[in-house]
Amino acid sequence: MTTNEGHVLPTLLEVSEVVCTPIAVIDGEGRVFRWTQPAQQLIGYSPAQATRRPAASMLASAADWTAASARAQGSHGPDVWSGPVMLRHIDGHALEVGLRLSRLSGPDGAVRWLVTATRADAVLSSAARGLRPSSLLGRAPVAICIRDAELRCTWVSGTAELVDGIPSATRLGRRLSDIRPGTESEALETAMRHVLHSGTSAIDLEYPEWLSAVGAYGPFEASYFRLDGPDGSPPALCAMWVDIADRDRARERLAIIDEAASRVGTTLDVARTGQELADIAVPLLADFAIVDLADSVRLGQDALLYPAPAHSPIPLFRRAGLASINQGAPEALWAPGEEISVPPTSTYALVLSTGTPSKTILRLPPDSRPHRGMAWAEKIRKYGIHAFMVVPIHTRGEALGVAAFARSKNPMPFEEGDLLLAEELVARAAVGLKNANRYTRERAMALALQRNLLPHHLTGGSAVDVASRYLPADIDAGVGGDWFDVIPLSGARVALVVGDVVGHGIEAAATMGRLRTAVRALADLDLPPDDLLTHLDDLIIRLTREDDVQELATQVLWATCLYVIYDPVTRRCTMARAGHPPPAIIDPQGRITFPDLPPGTPLGVGLSSFEAVELAVPEGSVLALYTDGLIESRTQDIDAGTDRLRAVLAQRDLPLDDQCSAVVEALSAHPPADDITLLMAQTHGLGPCQVASWDLPPNPAAVGKARFLSARKLANWGLDHLVTSTELIVSELVTNAIRHGKGPVTLRLIRDEFVTCEVSDTSNTLPRLRHARVTDENGRGLLLVNRLSQRRGTRYNMGEGKIVWAEQELTPGI
After folding, report:
1. Which residue among 47, 106, 599, 719 has its CA within the 20 to 30 Å range from the CA of 58?
2. Element (DSSP H or E) covering residue 552
3. Which helix (H) or strand (E) holds 42?
4. Backbone phi, psi, residue 524, to 5°
5. Are 53 and 30 in contact (CB under 8 A)?
6. Computed from CA positions of residues 548, 552, 557, 561, in that sequence, does the dihedral angle turn out positive or negative?
7. CA dist., res. 597 & res. 609, Å (int)
8. Range 53-59, long-range pairs (CB < 8 A, 24+ positions)
9. Is the pTM of this model over 0.85?
10. How far apart, in whole angstroms, are the C-alpha atoms of residue 7 and residue 202?
11. In this structure, are strands 387-395 and 236-243 parallel, antiparallel, or unpaired?
């Protein structure tokens, strides 16, 4: 049978637009020839009741059928009629529907009508949504075919050829398997037979592939309805199908976008985010992808520290991402991290400045591409690059760079949907790049601040040899608040300190600087370790209360600290900690111990529960002070890290600086999740020839003896030029100790980098520097000591009393 396709096709497309359903076929006499289950569901008549029944009897008004038939059969009228009618349900109530009559005619001259119907509420709903059948069906054409009980085609719409490429003349009178033998046709016919035998409609069956009009395989979706005939007559089948390749491509693009949400921007690393964008595009969108960022967007934490380039009329880019279906990306002219300069009129520069993407079919290499002579042209020819897209990377009005995509092995050119997908991927990556760029700049500032606040030249004098290492955390964790210091104290002693501010970023680095300065100031007061930590705890609490910004207050809330004082004269260490890991001590025989120090509470808690411990440290021992980043990570706890540290420290055959490097390299993760700080100090002792000590009776006669003993000792040391000044210093300090102190008095001279005079007594009263008036007879002693010495001060003994000391510089060369 044939049909007038020019008139049937628009009507059938309009029918499908509002979900029209074939319900019947009517012969030339107006009687029902075929009846469907949807028809039975619509007005209640079974196929047996409806077949051979006049169609007009099912209308509420027979005049509707007469008008429809007359108009459809007019000599100049169309072969399709549509309009609203009232059907009469089998139970008697009227039902308003939109009815369509499509004329079917065959070579024998018999005329039949395909009847489709749509409920009026569906039509009104469609109209309310503003749907226009012509616009929608232009994107999703529907093919319709009627087959007999043997699955031979008896009628087909003209749309079918557009969907599957089979001409109507070839299809009519034949089964599908006769036209295109194969497993696909057999599967389709199996589904058709099931509908014919069961009477159950099959809706929206998806098939993964079929030969399309251009000869390529593509997916489609089919629906089958049985058309029931009169008793004893074989039924027929109505098939409707549509090409869903566009829909599947849309689903694939949505899947790519969904995957990009979990794969792009996973870190705060600019370079890694750029590479993630390139990786997600290949091979899902392109065969080759590059991500080039404007030179203002720096790659990596260290690269941010070099100065920004001067303004140049030639745009500069830096490659941040590169991916290809070919191993090693041989299509690329620049490697990741390399700088790229392009002409101001290039596609790159124009896309970056205008924010408008570019999509090109490449035949010859365009002059506007970044180029190195004819290298790009050679790449195009060698790898068959035929399509190219350049998409700007910008967010919130800021241009960050461009992303370029190319196809070579994939023969299809880029479509508008591909460009939209690329723009969506780039937009998602732009947010991550923006955040990473801002975070990386802030991290660089925090790192620069921290490096400036940390000591650059450590010296332990003659007391200790020192080596240190500081390794910042990886870019995702952020710069922390670790600090370390070596502070010279009086009496050739030295203080070793390591601390860690809780938190990351500029606030933690700034707080670290404040605490390090405070520790140095408190160390100059010669406070014992436990007293120093108590004062530091009070300071953090005051800083927290003074900060009005809640975010900053949380950054300075807590800190941990370990403070150690080593005395090379007594070869003893005094140490205390505030929630910090204890030090490791390696004695000259290689034995490693972690002293059992009271843990203390972190600084800022306010409990001030700090306790100092004093222990002997043999000369030649090594003290290792560190932060928890060295021994604790995401994959191991502190105990496991401590065991690993013990094993690494057992290797004593390296110089101190090399051993410090070996410990960090062996224990640090790559990259570290937290800042790592390590301070190692090898102890030395002062021999008897460098120290002299005398106990003096607490009476004025002892002053002369003290002057004599000190002068004789300086002469033995070859420091005769310091005898006069030292006698004056000793005289004043011993006199004050006898006059204002209690109990026995001890005089000690230490020859190290300085000549130190120490006078101790059992009184806790500290001397105070006075400025005596002209008429005063006393009060000039400490002022004289201050003028004669390089430094002077007072400290408490660990036991009882105090020590007043004064240092004098040695003559250069002595």
Report:
1. 106
2. helix 550-555
3. helix 37-43
4. -65, -20
5. no
6. negative
7. 12
8. 54/30, 55/24, 55/26, 55/30, 55/31, 55/115, 56/30, 58/87, 58/88, 59/85, 59/86, 59/87, 59/88
9. no
10. 27
11. unpaired
- The closest alpha carbon to 161, from 104, 213, 102, belongs to 213
In Å, what is the CA distance from 261 to each residue of 254, 403, 404, 416? 11, 17, 20, 22
| 3-state class (DSSP) for residue 453 | helix
Q: Which of 771, 770, 772, 749 is nearest to 759 (CA)?
A: 749
Phi-psi region of 618 (alpha: psi -120 to 50; beta: other; left: phi over 0): beta
Asked if the bond preceding 283 is cis, omega within 30° of 0, the reply is: yes
Tokens describing residue 669? 């993760």
pLDDT at 217: 52
∠ CA(432), CA(433), CA(435), 5° rounding?
65
Six-digit token string for 217: 């395989």
Q: What confidence tens digit (pLDDT) does each residue in 772-788 have?
A: 444 444 555 677 787 88
Q: Both tokens of residue 208?
A: 């993964």
pLDDT of residue 184: 77
Whole-angstrom CA distances from 499 to 457, 527, 535, 562, 626 are 18, 17, 15, 6, 8
Phi, psi angles (nearest 5°) of residue 493: -80, 170
Give me 378's structure tokens: 């050679």
Which element (helix H / strand E) includes 667?
A: helix 656-667
d(CA 502, CA 67): 88
Q: How far is CA 608 from the centre of its chain?
A: 39
Q: Are 88 and 266 in contact (CB under 8 A)?
A: no
Q: What is the largest CA-CA distance in the chain?
A: 149
Per the CB < 8 A criterion, the answer to whether 524 and 793 are in contact is: yes
Tokens of 321: 């991402």
Q: What is the DSSP letter of 636?
A: -
- Rounded to 5 degrees, what are φ and ψ at 551? -65, -40
Q: Do 496 and 621 contact (CB within 8 A), yes or no?
A: no
Structure tokens at 539: 């300071």
**CA-based nearest residue to 805, from 786, 787, 792:** 792
Looking at residue 18, what is its pLDDT? 38
pLDDT along the chain (814 residues), means of 10: 36 39 79 84 87 85 70 52 82 83 66 77 46 36 82 81 76 84 83 89 77 55 81 79 72 75 77 88 90 73 40 65 90 84 77 78 50 68 87 81 89 85 85 76 68 76 90 64 88 92 75 85 89 89 67 60 94 93 92 92 83 93 91 77 87 84 81 81 91 90 90 91 90 86 86 90 72 49 79 79 88 51
Report whether 463 contacts 494 (CB < 8 A). yes
Q: Could you give the CA distance from residue 102 to residue 158 in angstroms, rounded to a whole number?
A: 13
Q: Do the Cβ atoms of 380 and 362 come closer than 8 Å?
A: yes
For 525, other C-beta atoms within 10 Å of its C-beta total: 13
Paired tokens of 700: 């004025």
Quick one: 50 exposed, middle or buried, by C-beta within 10 A (0-12, 13-18, 19+)?
buried
Residue 554 and residue 544: Cα distance in Å, rounded?
Answer: 8
What the block records as the tokens of 516 is 């390090």
Number of Cβ within a 10 Å radius of residue 480: 26
Whether residue 284 contacts residue 264, with contact meaning beta carbons closer than 8 Å, is answered with no
Nearest to 392 by CA among 344, 359, 438, 437: 359
